[in-house]
Amino acid sequence: MYPPELVKPMKEDLTNVGFKQLTTSDEVDQTIQNSKGTLLVVVNSVCGCAAGNMRPGVKLSLNNSKKPVELATVFAGVDGEATNQARKYFLPYPPSSPSIALFNDGKLVHFLERHHIEGGTAQMIAENLTEAYNEFC
Known about the structure:
By secondary structure, the protein is of the alpha/beta class.
């Protein structure tokens, strides 16, 4: 578990642009099961690839004309209950932090695992996501 003061700015990096922070399994269930249209769920983390690639790429992707209706995030290593519950919806993909899931009417339609994020650039992540938005949003 990471200290709250350490992860606060990392959480705010997404919540400041409209992501809802999910901290319990019930919040995850309600958000995913009750979503109408598209929902982007980001598994945030303290790793360097989340800071350098994932969060900037996700934020950049939101400049697209088509984008998800809802935005939500869980934080691996901090909000364990919520993260574990979200990962159940990501099956058959194994647990991965960071990762990004796009749902349409509660069904997983696009997923980026850590190995898609690590070593990539924010621009590459944004392009991957905008292609998914253009298809599903």
